[in-house]
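Hi P.,

Sorry for the delay on this. The queue was packed all week, but I finally got your sequence through. Input first:
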Amino acid sequence: MAQMTKEMIDMLETVTFAILATASPDGDPNAVPIGAKKILDNETILVSDQFFNKTLANMKANPRVSLTFWKDHGGYQIKGSVTIETTGSRYEETARWIEDMGKKRGFPLKSKGAVILKVEEIYSIGVGPDAGKRFS
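Then the structure:
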């Protein structure tokens, strides 16, 4: 497993959106913006599923995903595998968080699941000679 640095964690926590990429069993790519994300630890990211359709079907068939985020001229691509929780304490906590988020925004939101991403690889997407560099 790879581990995110403090810089990576800080960036992911401050960007409004990240792009979650999946692939169908026949290799058809799918990428969606996600805003409901939390760092659980330096090897684990939680993403809440409010609107996933193709994305959810893809993750159930192929748990390998990529999460890409950036700020200014730097950023990271994280690759790993996901599990999907629709019951239990972590899901219930996620559902409360999303419901509260929706109330604050004046738009009802409901979490359908907590997607748990285990970080396996991290790459730079910054400009310059380190573009594409694998960190771990």
